[in-house]
Amino acid sequence: MNYDPVFDKWHEECGVFGVYDRTVDVARYVYWGLFALQHRGQESAGIAVTDGHDVELKKGMGLLTEAIKELPSLPSHMGTGHVRYSTTGSNNPRNIQPLVIHYQGGQIAVAHNGNLTNALAIRKRLEADGSIFQTTMDSEVIVNLIARSKAETQAERIADAARQIEGAFSLVITTNDSLVGVRDPQGFRPLCLGKTENGYVFSSESCALDAIKAEFIRHIDPGEMVIIDDSGVRSVIYAEPEKIDKKLCVFEYIYFARGDSHIDGQSVYQSRLNMGRELYNETKYDADIVMSIPDSGTTAALGYARASGIPFAEGLVKNRYSGRTFIKPNQEERELAVRMKLNPLPHVVSGKRIVLIDDSIVRGTTSGIIVKMLKEAGAKEVYMCVSSPSIEYSCHYGIDTSVRKELIAATHTVDEIKDYINVDKLHYLSREGLCRAVSDIAPNDLCFACFNGDYSVEVPAEQEEGVKYVLE
């Protein structure tokens, strides 16, 4: 994942989508699916389609509409697609997925969502044995392991590779004769299965199934590989039973996933409404209006307003055409960048005690600017409620977070953060409240590592210190 330095947010590193159907324009269906997953990656996109013999790949930098100017024209019945945020320093065209390779066992196109914790160690071993790498991303380790496997079938080669990699990975892969979906033993990143009229679909989120009028079937289980071919759908549990330990990233519900998706059976929209309700139950603030920092805090703000009876108001207008704003050299220019994207409504906020809802605070650089803008517009008091616990640890399972020392909650108390961002009150949702909000998922099935440092998959020491996998 990549960090947004202006809005002080993390972003999903990528989204994956795949179609197996002999009766539709596969490339167009993949394109539509990726369009619905655009929120999961906005720096590059790619589509690979195959007829079982040849592969055609179209890819480019930027949003999907910028990256894919012309769809693949190869008549095909299988396709996989990818939208991506790059990790720091790796927004390189070489790293655009899907990765397409031809090897002795056939041809494959791989789309990967997640981050491998043992990728660097595997890559060093493979390079010592003579393997050549063309990109700087961990996903290329996967295709090398598949190509070097001694298993007889491509599906068995994929399973063999999946047993060797660790960390977060949801994969969609086309082979010569099948479309394959794979989810890691912890299920850190989501992956679901859907059905078209005459075929099947894999998607990071269920909202993309709706985009092509596919019927949702189920979510892929942690440690499961699902194979789709002309004979239908079959499932294989490739992981050793003792290694399967579900730990879905709870930030999918807090921020990453689109509100109209269901992730592992839990409605994302409902979970965010519940977070707002739980925030009210934990604070019981007396205020004049409830508002959000758009758009990520809006649903939780509605939940707070409904639970409290305090009116919801839109006190900030977002400029949706300002584009991405990259790291600014100083605080003054960062403030100008925030003001380009958000503008307060004085007649709404003036003289008001405001409950301000946001989903998270990473470094605190933006929260203070927004509070300053509201008070300049006449806000009497600002009570900030955050619909997640405080982020105190880096993530190593698919989020390119700041090193731990840059996370404000790792080095400051709640009172210190309150003073730093100049709010009158500050409250983070408790872990217990978060679990109540995500009520359809057992707490033990969620990953809270960014809150408590409990990493369910071992993280190499160099990664704990903030060293990234990328070799650029």
TrEMBL record:
Single GO molecular function: magnesium ion binding
Keyword Transferase among UniProt keywords: yes
Binding, [4Fe-4S] cluster: 249, 395, 447, 450
Reaction catalysed by this enzyme: 5-phospho-beta-D-ribosylamine + L-glutamate + diphosphate = 5-phospho-alpha-D-ribose 1-diphosphate + L-glutamine + H2O
Enzyme Commission code(s) on record: 2.4.2.14
Cofactor note: Binds 1 Mg(2+) ion per subunit. Binds 1 [4Fe-4S] cluster per subunit.
Binding residues annotated for Mg(2+), in chain numbering: 296, 358-359
InterPro entries: GATase_2_dom, Ntn_hydrolases_N, PRTase-like, PRTase_dom, PurF, PurF_N
Swiss-Prot/TrEMBL cofactor(s): Mg(2+); [4Fe-4S] cluster
Residue intervals passing through the bilayer: none
SUPFAM superfamilies, alphabetized: N-terminal nucleophile aminohydrolases (Ntn hydrolases), PRTase-like
Keyword 4Fe-4S in record: yes
Domain of life: Bacteria
Catalytic residues identified in the record: 14 (nucleophile)
Gene Ontology BP term (one): 'de novo' IMP biosynthetic process
Pfam families: GATase_7 (PF13537), Pribosyltran (PF00156)
Similarity comment: In the C-terminal section; belongs to the purine/pyrimidine phosphoribosyltransferase family.
Function: Catalyzes the formation of phosphoribosylamine from phosphoribosylpyrophosphate (PRPP) and glutamine.
Protein name as it appears in the record: Amidophosphoribosyltransferase
